[in-house]
Amino acid sequence: MEDFLSEFPELSRETLRFIKKGFDASYRAFSREYGDAIEAVFDPVLYFLVWFEKLLQNSPWPIVLICFLAVIYFGSRKISVTIGSLFAFLLIGIFGMWEDTMSTVSIIGVCTMLSIGIGIPVGVLMAKSERAQRICTPILDVMQTMPSFVYLIPVVMLLGIGKIPGLLAVVIYAIPPIIRLTNLGIREVDREVLEAADAFGANPRQKLFQVQLPLALPTIFAGINQTIMMALAMVVIASMIGVKGLGQPVLKAITNQYFAMGLFNGLAIVALAIIFDRVSQSFGHRIQQHRSGSRE
Amino acid sequence: MSEIKIQIKNLYKIFGKNPESALEQVKDGVNKDELLEKHNHVLGLKDINLDIKEKSIQVVMGLSGSGKSTLIRHINRLIEPTDGSVVVDGEDVLKMNDENLRNFRRTKTAMVFQRFALLPHKTVLENTMFGLHIQNIDEKDANTRARRWIDRVGLSGYEEKYPQHLSGGMQQRVGLARALTNDGEILLMDEAFSALDPLIRKDMQDILLELQDELHKTVVFITHDLDEALKIGDRIAILKDGIMDQEGIPADILLSPKTQYVKDFVEDVNRARVIKAKHIMSKLNGQDRDNAMFVDQDDFIDRFIDKVISDKPNCLIIKNKNNDEIGYLSTKRLSEILKR
């Protein structure tokens, strides 16, 4: 009796090992069987990612920088943000982190596009169907709270080490906010406006594209912003499984206790994060100007 | 005289988990409170019968919770009834499939909402074109039609503004322009002017009446305001707790309220401003017409009461637009009506 109370009645070590081994073995068998096929599915993404990375790294740096600044200016329409970005990129280059930064920008870019491409349709589905929402919500909860290292394991087992598993890990980690906020944004659309769309005979597609998505756009944009930030945070962790970029020197710095190296690369990530955040936020504000009352 | 445009027959609406079983209870005579208490269902509408004439303004009046907004949403089937039928131009709206229903909503009806329900991300012009975009009408045509109605409701110059930059009254003009641009024969107005300031509300009522003079739409107008109902309604239906208490022309409702509820409602109304000569005249039947005064059939009492007092006629003769004598009103009857 005393034993029972002091020690939690757990499975015997044998049984536990059997369960874990069995689980691992069957997953390994699954990945041996389908790993190549699944990898083949991601080939186009891989080609695009490699092409994009090479483009950024091999083009002359002034041209890349000018392109970046142009995107930043037209995204934010703010001189201050553009000049700040110029200095940030110059410092990054001077401190020898240009190539790694280009890698990181390319993977963040591709991850963001993938997240938007998958996340918005899933969010729309969740908003339209209660059942989809019931199924997706717990999955999203798991994706957001599961320690990211844990789902690196099956991804690596399935696809090995490299760009695509890293990309997958980043997308899995970064996609929940955009799904959740798309769902929220659509569900928050004023009931009376929807009723008006119905009363004028809009079909479900017209309702989605002319009413629900445009009205949800500011919320969706908050989701995109979150997704970019989370992708940046995940880049360091993903470097453990071979994603190139600013994460790798950070990882090296941790294992070898190179404080300065870690700090420089860390600051480069921070600089990227701030630039992405300012640009996407001011872009988000601009597209909802009609709400505020003042127009430029 | 004129055709019936919308025919609502034995319409029931019950909100709750199992409306069919609750419907039987209601038909067996269970009332609203009992239904809510014992069966946990809300009685929305009970046995509504209403024939709405073509080219007239039918007002549905009631306090909040009376089911008036529920009733208007049955006409374009934004709400499915529990039982009954809604027939528009001989076609049962409730039997339409999705495609037909959308076409019906696109071409036959247009709706104006209490809180405007404009699209905040579209300009006034784009909002006005909304119905036409839904119908995939080509851009140039839609643009011309929309601009015409924006002008007609007095909003020219504001085409490129966003709804947030306009006052409530102007926003509702956009709502009205959007509905009129759709060019349906039926205009559904759900408390369209209730959210507006009294002065602006009066303006909007005048605009509506002026437009109606020219457009002759079949208008169903929901309101909780008796003055508004009397001012614009050709006929008024009064709802209470989902039941129709009385339906008729404004003068009938004022002069012979059927229930205590209606009586309470109409008690404080200034009759002189609501009742027209034609409502209270009797037939011309060789009455003594010494010292008679002539009055137009559409004049309200307060238009000619001063003249009656100063000229002291013995009786009034009512004339129509062609100047034919059509009715007779004694001064005694007139003073009875005003004294109530």
Sheet with the most strands: spatial strand order of chain B: 6-7-8-3-9-10
User: What is the mean pLDDT of chain B?
Assistant: 89
* Strand runs of chain A, count: 0
Task: Give the percentage of residues in beta strands of chain A.
Answer: under 5%
Order of helices and strands of chain B: EHHEEHEEHEHHHHEHEHEEHHHEHEEH
How far from one another are the termini of chain A?
A: 77 Å
Instruction: State the share of residues found in helices of chain B, binned by percent.
Output: 25-40%
Helix content of chain A: over 70%
CATH architecture of chain A: Orthogonal Bundle
CATH class of the domain at 277-339 in chain B, please? Alpha Beta
- Write down the CATH topology of chain A: MetI-like fold
Shape label of chain B: globular
Secondary structure: number of strands of chain B: 13
Give me the Rg of chain B, rounded.
22 Å
- What is the fourth-level CATH superfamily of chain A? MetI-like
CATH superfamily of the domain at 277-339 in chain B: CBS-domain
Q: What would you call the structural class of chain A?
A: mainly alpha
The largest sheet of chain B, given as strand count, sense and whether it forms a barrel, is:
6 strands, mixed
Indicate how many domains the architecture of chain A comprises. 1
What structural category characterises the helix and strand content of chain B?
Answer: alpha/beta
Largest Cβ-defined interface: A-B, 24 and 30 residues
Give a structural overview.
The complex is a heterodimer of chains A (296) and B (340). Chain A is mostly helical and 296 residues long. Chain A has helices spanning 2-6, 13-41, 43-58, 61-76, 79-94, 98-128, 130-145, 148-159, 163-174, 176-187, 191-199, 204-238, 247-256, 259-287, 289-292. Chain A has a single domain (40-289), classed as MetI-like (MetI-like fold, Orthogonal Bundle), CATH 1.10.3720. Chain A has 15 helices and no strands. In chain A, helix 6 runs antiparallel to helix 12 (204-238) and helix 10 (176-187) packs antiparallel against helix 12. Chain A is globular, with a radius of gyration of 23 Å. Chain B has a domain at 277-339: CBS-domain. Helices cover 40% and strands 24% of the residues of chain B. Chain B contains 15 helices and 13 strands. Chain A binds chain B through residues 190, 192-193, 195-203, 206, 210-211, 214-215, 217, 288, 290-293, 295, and chain B through 76, 78, 101-107, 109-111, 113-115, 117-121, 130-131, 133-135, 162, 164-165, 182, 188.
